[in-house]
Write a structure and sequence with these properties.
Length: 143
């Protein structure tokens, strides 16, 4: 799948699969330099805009290494990029760690996965079809 991309900033990095076609996601990099204090979050620009094809969505997710080593996550993970959005991709990065975390220009801050999505239509009904689970929610399957 080819996705048109526009660089909006001279320091923007084009997303690539780090290990090739076996990777589900591509890394998104910062075009900003900042430091996140413990507990702080920031909207970080990537300097790119995409034209995701209709029938697909872009899902922005944390990078596991940053989360495990430094407590860096994304506040609204996964962030959703709709196929009709053409603005700059920005990432809400949060430091849940105990130390300040510097972000530099070109640092990989998140990953993007392009996935098919269904366009749902909803119909109001008086009753939903039954299932074995029924309305059981949080904790309903036990510990």
């Amino acid at each position: 799948m080819r996705i048109p991309i526009k660089k909006l900033h001279p320091d923007a990095a084009l997303p690539v699969h780090a290990y090739g076609d076996g990777d589900a996601g591509v890394d998104l990099a910062s075009v900003q330099q900042l430091t996140l204090a413990p507990g702080e979050r920031a909207l970080v620009a990537t300097g790119i805009a995409l034209a995701i094809p209709r029938g697909f969505g872009g899902f922005v997710q944390p990078r596991s290494g940053l989360a495990a080593k430094y407590g860096i996550t994304l506040t609204n993970a996964p962030g959703l990029i709709d196929s009709n959005y053409r603005g700059e991709i920005k990432v809400i990065v949060q430091n849940t760690g105990e130390d300040e975390f510097p972000i530099g220009v070109g640092d990989r801050i998140a990953q993007l996965v392009i996935m098919p999505v269904a366009h749902a239509e909803f119909e109001a009904v008086d009753e939903l079809p039954p299932t074995d689970r029924g309305p059981g929610g949080f904790g309903s399957s036990g510990i």
